[in-house]
Amino acid sequence: MTLPLPDWAPALYQALHRGPELGFQEHRTAGLLAEVLGREGFTVTRGIGGTGLAAVLDRGPGPVVAARAELDALPLQERTGAAFASEVDGVTHACGHDLHMAALAGAAAQLASRPDLPPGRIVLVLQPAEELGSGAARMVEDGLADVVPRPDVLLSQHVSAMAPAGVLVSTSGTALAAADTLVVTARAPGGHTGQPDSGPDPVLFAAGLTQRLHTVVGRDVAPFEQAVVSVPGIAAPSAPGLRAPRAAVTVNIRTFEERVRQAVLDRVDALVRAEAAAAGLAFGDDVQLTHDTHVPRVENDAQVRDRLAAVHRERLSMGHLSVPPALASDDVSLLVRAFGCPAVYWFVGSGEPGGRLGPVRPACHTDAYLPHPATLAVATAAMREALLAGLSGDLYGPAGRAGS
Questions:
Q1: CATH superfamily, region 9-176+297-392
Q2: Which residue positions form the known binding site?
């Protein structure tokens, strides 16, 4: 099976990979996408939510189908050895957002060039700061829904090393978990490391809290429930002779059910208070707990998901398999809520063609992750057929919403 690409798509992908940018700093990235989409006939609006942009192709009255891709990269040093490896120290597209953008632009361009394209509108949302969990919210707050027509369906795809290139996977119903990010800060006057008894130590507090937090799922969540509590970072700037005057602990929580989420949040609050008291720090004064971001779980409309899987199988002869929900998260769920439309989110295999399903290395979010070269063409084709199916009404049942 041959999967065509616009001749510029591989170069765009490599340019995006070479020049990654962190959340809310994606000025060059947004500029590249705006230039390409404008050239392909889309009306582009930049600066939504800071660095976000939206692009609309208007072919007259009809359905409105939207798709989202992410602009940002990760604070990670790349070690793939690729000829087009990141040229930005300590930043890389280890989550495949560069491929998502190139595939979305390529699919949109292929449709824009078709004289027989069904009437309707294609809406592309290029979102900043997905990795921070706050980019979608920023775009919504900045009036995204007033800039673009209201979609009948919102499409999103993501690479996955857990499937081989040429295989698509998705979930009917709950697809991704909710995510909460909390920040715990502890402050003290500081002091000399040669006098450890002269006052509270924020680093000792942070270390004790980190150990206790990793017991929440094993001891405070029932074995048949699903949750993750992680500490992705501890910051305590200091010097060899200085007891750090401040320590900040970032806590990330993933859950599917609201009652489990609330139970975990309550337990984290209790542990922070208890560890503060044990460290000789006053909760509310010396120690503060703030709720940084909340990302709702991603829900796939079952009917749209099943119809899309059938489209991929029939039009591309491509496997589109059903898988259980994942404890990853994505703030595209906030765009779905803002638009008030059904949505479907699927994964594009990026592993060695013909490989097995399941965990493999290097995985996403690691310094050696790089999608197989065949993935770009597969993702472009998968998104193109999804957008076309949306315009053709093939994703909607008898009660489906067709745009006006």
A1: Zn peptidases (3.40.630.10)
A2: 95, 97, 131, 158, 365
- Which residues of the chain does CATH 3.40.630.10 include? 9-176+297-392
Q: What is the mean pLDDT of each run of 10 residues along the chain (404 residues)?
A: 88 98 98 98 98 98 98 98 98 98 98 97 98 98 97 98 96 98 97 92 97 95 95 96 97 98 98 97 98 97 97 95 96 98 98 88 96 98 98 73 40
Question: Which token pair is 47?
Answer: 């600066």
Please give the structure tokens belonging to residue 189: 């006057």
Q: How many CB atoms lie within 10 A of CB 86?
A: 21
User: Which residues make up the CATH 3.30.70.360 domain(s) of the chain?
Assistant: 178-295
**Which residue numbers belong to the known binding site for Mn(2+)?**
95, 97, 131, 158, 365
- State the Cα–Cα distance between residues 245 and 168, nearest whole angstrom: 50
Residues ≥6 apart with Cβ < 8 Å to 89: 77
Q: What are the distances in angstroms from CA 91 to CA 73, 78, 102, 212, 295?
A: 7, 7, 19, 31, 24
Judge: domain 178-295, CATH 3.40.50.1000.
no
